[in-house]
Amino acid sequence: MIQASFKKNPAQAQATFKSVSELKDGLVSSGQLRTFQIKADEPESFGGTDSAPNPVEVLLFSLGACQAGQGKKEEITTKAFANAMGVPLKRVSVELQGHIDLRGFFAVDESIRAGFNKIEGTFTVESPADTETIEKLKAAVDAHCPVKDMLQAVPMEVKLNHIQV
């Protein structure tokens, strides 16, 4: 188990992640994350070509992906804690909405922050486990998701939707 390994050898728990991005044509940025290529653009209404998600959409996806971790071999937050707690999962999904006042981004009003002012959504878990167990799992995910941790300055309300199967 990963947690036991890190307790024995804290030096193994140190990680560095790297991203390289470059502005290309118009508002399109291309980037590299390890061996993966990624692209970002803005909608046409913001002056982009709408050829890719914009950076704030990628951030919302990052939060949802960090919390959900549906892949069979991925040890992303929910899967890692479900495994550690012995909670069987059938399906996990996260739907998020980020609310932003664009006056901050476009420098219309300097008193308004440029980023999200609220993130809300639904964390859906299909599992045969009882609701109390799933609530404990969500609490562990909320407490340990690195992306959520980095966004703590933003009010966030992600409601649990437990589908007992």
TrEMBL record:
Species, as recorded: Durusdinium trenchii
Gene3D superfamilies xrefs: 3.30.300.20
Organism taxonomic ancestry: Eukaryota, Sar, Alveolata, Dinophyceae, Suessiales
Protein known as: OsmC-like protein
